[in-house]
Design brief:
It contains no helices and 9 strands. It is mainly β.
Length: 139
Amino acid sequence: MADYSPTAANVSASAQATTVNGTAGATVTAGQAVYKSSTDGEWYLLDADDSSKIGTQGNIGIALNGAADGQPLRVCTFDPAFTPGFTMAVGTAVVGSGTAGALAPASDLASSDYHIMLIHPKTTSVGYLYPILSTNAIS
């Protein structure tokens, strides 16, 4: 299976969500996985292939709007009823992909990828967003 392709206009957080406002450190589209840099405090595209681009626990989420580098960005870091803008397979965790900013089914991760679980699907369109970061590659 390939990376998911969110429809940016359909990405939304519920009323129970925890969101943060920040600044994009790169061009970001709504629905992309992001992490907050400990260096400059800006939000960048998460990349499961690169340990320097996975952030730290508590500083990972999904962008709720699109933004260019230096522009305001709203990020959802927790939501019991998150709508990611794509169809998920119930029972298959949605993780950060080896493609920067992308989300993928957990089964698609390579052995060298870092495991960043982002969404546990409740239905095919709504999931529990609670980012969990493993500090080790899968292998």
